[in-house]
Design goal:
globular; two-stranded antiparallel sheet; 293 residues; 2 domains; mainly alpha; MetI-like fold
Length: 293
Amino acid sequence: MKKLSDKLFTNEKIVFWLFVLPSLLGIGIFIVIPIIFSFVLSFYNWDLLGSPYFVGLKNYVELFNEDKFWFILKNTLYFSFAVSAFGILIPIVLAAAVNAKIRGSELFKTLYFLPFVTPMVVVAIIWEWIFDPNIGFVNMLFRCNVQWLFNPDTAMFVIIFVSVWKLAGYNMILLLSGFSLIDNTIYESAKIDGASPVRTFCKITVPLLSPSIFFVAVITFISSFQVFDLIYLMTKGGPEDSTNILVYWLYKNAFEYFHIGKASAIAYILFGIIFVLTLLQWKIRKKWVFTEE
């Protein structure tokens, strides 16, 4: 009997590895190896044509001594913090409104979520037309002639607006799942005690919803640092680099200037920034997330 059980256990392990092996191979070939290879390349100079040669920390030193790097880093941080802030606050309000069981709430859920599932190419084309200085709906509505996407002072605001518009519905759905975990008897008790809707929202809803808010904050913050397609399709980093961010600059260095080593260095600087800021979010969660101790 023992031999039979040992044989079955061994067979189960073989079956387990047979099922897991394709995924492990895919992760190794398409994720782990490229990560290691790109990190090594960040210490080399390579133009995709000749042989790469080792330059040590030169790529990193040149980046930190380049004024354009700091300007683009400032753009990236500004964009990320703005999208994260509005991409959390607006969905909270939307989720609270939809959760109040207003008439047509199911329809609103669908309408708010549609932008998220719409391809970015379609989104970029539509909003580029809406903000067109000649035939755009915005200028026609306000009877003005603002060069929205061609003015360094307004282009970033447009990109932030479109990013938040596309993301808001998805974050709203995530927050609605948090609303579903809140016991309605708590609201009933607050109503009996005479708490106003604003006080109820601030003192009850937000604390109890804080685990969901924390999750949404982390994923929104990380994704905001990785935006590329919207920049590429709408502004290509312009005008005057006003919408240029690290991911798009990485792309230009790698596939337009063929500075592969520099592009790899940018990628790992970006990774370091995301890692540190995410770790900081994780450290301070205990100060405001309700269920953390």
